[in-house]
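FAQ: What does the model actually see?

It sees only this:
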Amino acid sequence: MRRIALTSLFATTLLLTANLASANGSKNAPFSLPELPYANNALEPAIDARTMDIHHNGHHRAYVNNLNAKVKDYPALATTSLEDIQASVSRYGAAVRNNAGGHYNHSLFWTLMAPVGRGGSPSPVLQAKLVQTFGSQEAFQTKFAEAATRVFGSGWAWLILKPDGSLAITTTPNQDNPLMDVVTERGTPLLALDVWEHAYYLHYQNKRADYIEAWWPVVSWNQVNARYDAATGKR
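And it is asked to produce this:
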């Protein structure tokens, strides 16, 4: 009963935060919450429907509303793409960094997952690059999981394509990402994993490693392949 009560309180607090942020936002809000590309329960058992609902409709919606609320302070946000905001995020205050990062990160994260059996596999080109860089796909997944597990507190794990054309596994705290001009290792995000507790705590509690292991079957390699092809095609 205590767990149910805490879960209910957790969800209510998130929704209240989102509603308050919306009340302070602009009527002509330039940023919007994207629809999920699947049903809330489509990623079960890796990610349960309740967690997905809170994560998307609570957390992500709050980032969007809070970012829209900052347009009055930074009018240029209204005509700047979300990606370009990341690239010049040092021009803005912490609220823009946190909420623009949260909006970008989650918008990407949803697309990088698919129901079990529908995510495909690494393309021959990406597979070859993973083998060249990490030794094998299995070795890559092990190293990625280790990096995600080691993130202290809240943050993200990434597979990125660096400007020199190499692949790298990196991590960022909070809602930072590899596009931002404030991070040490920059690059194009190809794969991302949210390791904030809100992404897994209802189902996995403090067992982040279990969440990471369960997540691999719902990775959309089709999307990772498309991002890799697009990023390398620009070179």
